[in-house]
Design goal:
Length: 1000
């Protein structure tokens, strides 16, 4: 099946390439042959096992982060340090073309859209980067990253004929990326071409090596289908990779995991498809996106939780994976209309780092345990190969469990999980595995091991702990490090489990802390057997090995509170992971950002949310003291040399504004529905032709993008002269398309005719609305306000979905031919020649207040009326509110803030349907739909908010019901109060309002 599909694709692609080559008189964009590219540089190399950087094998263990979903470059470092602290070595990022070439031919990547600050922060944190510039990215972005003007092109997307439209973007972004490659001293070591290009219509084309990209090219096949593998004559990449989302995207019921979803044949496919490249999972599930009306990200995080990580990530390791990227690791925000209609403002994704940048989710800590294990296992893991796939009942005493072995030299890794990975059973088992001392039946000193529910464990044999052979361990390895005169090994287990480890040593062991460990010297080894309890146990074996036996997670003594921090390496590696360099092991609490040695002090920078004892359990002998932020240095040591100190938490006084107490100013943002409104400056919607493949049926096209309006609210004005034939109870019927959860409202002069208030599952709707009495000869103005929710994505290859138009699709007016109505249209002021270059092409839509820039700081609201969004609106309409307040958050604290609407009885009964857009310093950071939800809380990052000074906010309130509406409640709340050693966060640019020439 896969083979025949490949064959067909091969034939198709050869045909299509020849056709294009002939048409252009040259090869289409150059197809890359790995054997040609391999010579381009020698810093990043690879073989069948792994990549190497500067000649050392490295696991590219990456978290996906989208710079465009956090428009505060001053916070990139915070996110990166939280990822580095997980033990990851890299970050993968998409670039959203739609935001950088909003106007065709004009590429701009400045201010919050500049990529260099992202690269600089990655270098500072020490994370290598995988660049994924598309041009097609998907990523739940409007158009999947395609700019709106691409709707007006005839060519089929992602096929050879369309490629010319990408040239400007490709050459500009290619040049930016080329400069930041590792070969030029930057952090970028890999580049993915296109996204899920799982077809051969085009050959993979972007960006070609003319842009100066010399690092390895990757692809991201939608599944292990074998597209563009090295040596494939349809064109190939250097390192073949694919997606893996075993849990799918339905997080409605947290406990419901899809059955039989764990991949079982990935390694076999890899060995067939791409045996010369490392096993690479370019997107490995880290959570899920959530749609309008969905369960919310708290539920998605509870569904793809720490248990899912344990089972799925360990199943990845057993494939011999050496390149992996967790999608998402920090999701961020779909601010400023950048999302596609299938999602709302938050892109939290239920990821390990929440949208407000906090790391309270248990899955963050679990991800740290998982990553550290493979990092600690170094080349031994990276050169290990699976010897067979998971087989139920082999090597274990029960068919309920499956064990998959991975071998590297004498070392064995045995991944145990329930045969049915969704099983919630608690299963007792014994494991029988080969070791250098023969087959051993584990445990020896007690009866059974236990696998509790949705869990998976990696048991090891003949595992080298810095020169001591650990013969086996049923407890899992968090990390180990060797220092000048001693070694530290940290093992952990789940609550209530019994574990056993044995070391091939003649030395004896003694308990330094804790109790309940049986230590038994036998011929050739020393066995430890213990029941996992809260509170650690520390065993010294011989003079130099210190073994910490921890519980995974119950209290602050457990594995979740241990951190392994790289110490800086000599140039050129610097802060990037150097597998041969040492690292410190520290027990702290909430987060450690960095560790450096200054003189003889280990200087830790970290975050705490409670007074915390800091213990440095592994450090080089040059260190005699430890400091934490402003505390210390402390030189206190315990009996076996652990360095300790106390980090004291002092609760700050945080005062936040009470919105109901502030003075708010208001302006009518729908003057169009007033009789005297003059729309003479508007664009005439008079195109009689459109290249859009969805043919329009109205006399002229009313598609927003045919007039350059690609984002947010669209407003139409329809003019006709009453002829007396409209009848009593005649109608105006109108159908609109805006994408899922969109809505629209219609007025005839100042009479409200009706609305479609939206539905999470409906993207187009028709309303037939009753006309008021009209007098023949009367000049009539219709106003139609349509909320658009972004463009559809453009997957799979060749799909026209992204061209699905937005706006009015059709209409009918009693007593009239459609040609009797002439139309005008507006969206954001200037359309693709958008005004606000700071906040980009998608941030503002077509509301009157937006066109005039009143959402920006310091609007000319002096003469406006005073009124609060909490006061009831009478009838349908759009009102625009602004206010300002001071924030004075004390320095040294990280206090994420969130704007919270309230879910009220009125929302539930949906008699008062309204839509709000929340602007903070002009950045649109929330689109709230009270009758759809599910997002009620809108985090806004420091940097968009000014934490020590004045803040301007604005709120549009569109009431879709004749009953009118008011915002029931809006509060600014803090979602954490972290005492932080992190540097001051620089403000993102916040240019203030100036009168806009030509604004209407
Ligand atoms: C994968 C896309 O590559 C990525 O851009 C994003 O959209 C992700 O899905 C879902 O969040 S496609 C994969 C589900 C086949």
């Amino acid at each position: 099946m896969a083979f025949s599909r490949l064959l067909i694709a091969l034939v198709l692609s050869i045909l299509s390439l020849q056709v294009v080559a002939r048409a252009l008189g040259r090869q289409p964009h150059e197809l890359i042959k790995p054997y040609k590219r391999a010579a381009l540089q020698d810093i990043v190399t690879w073989d069948q096992y792994s990549m190497s950087v500067h000649g050392k094998r490295i696991f590219f263990y990456s978290g996906e982060v989208h710079p465009f979903r956090l428009p505060v470059p001053g916070l990139y470092l915070d996110i990166f340090q939280k990822i580095k602290a997980l033990g990851y070595t890299g970050v993968s990022f998409y670039i959203d073309w739609a935001l950088l070439e909003g106007q065709q031919g004009t590429f701009t990547a400045e201010g919050v859209f500049a990529l260099e600050p992202f690269f600089d922060a990655a270098s500072q944190a020490g994370l290598y980067l995988l660049a994924r510039p598309g041009p097609y990215i998907n990523a739940e972005t409007s158009g999947g990253g395609f700019p709106g003007w691409l709707q007006r092109t005839e060519e089929i997307y992602r096929t050879p004929a369309y490629v010319k439209y990408t040239d400007n973007y490709a050459s500009n972004v290619g040049a930016i990326l080329a400069k930041a490659q590792i070969t030029n001293g930057g952090p970028i070591i890999l580049l993915q071409i296109e996204n899920e290009y799982s077809d051969a219509l085009n050959g993979i084309t972007f960006p070609n090596k003319n842009a100066g990209i010399v690092i390895p090219f990757l692809n991201n096949d939608i599944a292990p289908e074998g597209w563009f593998t090295p040596g494939n004559i349809t064109g190939s990449v250097d390192i073949y990779g694919h997606d893996d989302y075993p849990m799918g995207f339905n997080c409605m019921v947290p406990s419901t995991w899809p059955v039989n979803s764990l991949p079982s044949n990935f390694r076999e496919l890899h060995d067939l498809e791409s045996p010369t490249t490392p096993f690479a999972i370019i997107e490995n599930q880290g959570g899920s996106s959530d749609a309008w009306g969905g369960p919310g990200y708290g539920t998605c995080a509870a569904w793809f939780n720490e248990e899912a990580e344990r089972v799925i990530y360990k199943n990845d390791f057993i494939l011999g994976t050496a390149i992996i990227n967790m999608y998402m690791t920090y999701g961020g925000t779909n601010w400023g209309n950048l999302g596609f209609p299938g999602i709302y403002t938050s892109y939290d994704y239920g990821a390990v780092i929440a949208e407000d940048r906090t790391i309270f989710r248990e899955k963050y800590s679990e991800a740290k345990l998982d990553a550290n294990f493979v990092m600690a296992s170094g080349d031994v893991y990276l050169t290990a190969v699976p010897t067979e796939s998971a087989v139920n009942g082999t090597m274990v005493s029960t068919d309920s469990l499956a064990v998959a072995p991975l071998k590297s030299g004498s070392t064995g890794f045995y991944v145990v999980r329930h045969s049915d990975y969704t099983s919630q059973e608690s299963t007792k088992y014994r494991l029988t595995v080969p070791t250098s001392q023969g087959n051993i039946d584990i445990p020896q000193l007690s009866s059974t091991l236990t696998l509790n529910g949705r869990d998976s464990k990696i048991h090891v044999t003949d595992y080298n702990v810095g020169g001591t052979n650990m013969l086996y361990s049923s407890a899992e390895i968090f990390t180990w490090k060797a220092y000048d005169s001693y070694k530290v090994l940290i093992l952990y287990g789940g609550p209530g489990e019994t574990h056993e480890a044995a070391f091939a040593t003649a030395s004896n062991g003694k308990i330094l802390e804790g109790s309940g460990v049986t230590i038994k010297p036998t011929s050739g080894s020393l066995q430890l057997n213990w029941a996992v309890t809260s509170g650690r146990k520390v065993i010294q074996i011989g003079t130099e090995l210190f073994v910490y036996l921890l519980e995974r997670y119950t209290n602050r003594d457990d594995a979740y509170n241990y951190w392994v921090l790289d110490l800086p390496s000599p140039s050129p590696v610097n802060n990037f992971h150097d597998p041969s360099n040492t690292a410190v092991i520290v027990q702290a609490d909430y987060l450690l950002h960095t560790a450096t040695i200054q003189g003889s002090t280990l200087a830790l920078i970290g975050d705490i949310n409670a007074t915390t004892a800091i213990e440095v359990v592994g450090y080089p002998s040059s260190v005699t003291g430890v400091s934490f932020n402003q505390f210390g240095p402390s030189t206190a040591k315990n009996s076996w040399g652990v360095l300790g100190g106390l980090a004291t938490y002092t609760a700050p006084t945080i005062s936040l504004p009470v919105f109901t107490d502030l003075v708010w100013k208001v302006i009518d943002s729908l003057p169009e529905a007033r009789p005297d409104y003059d729309d003479s400056n508007w664009v005439n919607a008079d195109h009689t032709k459109s290249t859009n493949p969805f043919p329009f049926v109205t006399p002229t096209s009313l598609y927003g993008s045919d007039y350059g309006f690609n984002t947010g609210n669209l407003v139409y004005r329809g003019h006709f002269t009453a002829n007396g034939n409209e009848d009593n109870a005649g109608t105006f019927s109108v159908s609109c398309t805006g994408g899922l959860a969109f809505g629209f409202s219609v007025w005839l002069d100042d009479t409200f005719l009706g609305s479609w208030a939206g539905d999470a599952l409906i993207e187009s709707n028709q309303q037939t609305l009753t006309l008021p009495a009209l007098t023949a000869g009367q000049k009539v103005n219709l106003t139609v306000l349509v909320d658009t929710m972004g463009f559809e994505e453009a997957a799979p290859i060749g799909s026209n979905a992204m061209k699905t138009p937005r706006g009015i699709m059709n209409y009918g007016l009693s007593g009239h031919a459609n040609t009797d109505v002439t139309w005008k249209i507006t969206g954001n002021l200037g359309g693709e020649e958008y005004v606000d270059k700071t906040r980009g092409p998608l941030n503002e839509g077509g509301l009157y207040a937006e066109r005039n820039g009143y959402h920006l700081p310091n609007p000319p609201s002096g003469p406006w009326e005073e009124s609060k969004p909490f006061d009831s609106l009478f009838g349908a309409g759009v009102y625009f509110y602004t206010t300002s307040f001071d924030l004075n958050i004390p320095a040294g604290y990280d206090v994420p803030l969130s704007f919270e609407f309230e879910r009220t009885a009125a929302d539930a009964s949906a008699t008062q349907n309204y839509r709000c857009q929340l602007y903070v310093h002009g950045y649109q950071f929330g689109k709230f739909i009270n009758n759809i939800g599910p997002q009620y809380s809108f985090p806004v990052p420091e940097g968009v908010l000014n934490y020590s000074g004045v803040n301007y906010i604005a709120l549009s309130l569109w009431s879709l019901s004749s009953a009118g509406s008011a915002v029931e409640s809006l509060q600014l709340i803090s979602t954490a109060t972290i005492q932080s050693g992190f540097e001051t966060v620089a403000l993102s640019p916040q240019p203030t309002w100036i009168a806009r020439p030509g604004a209407y």
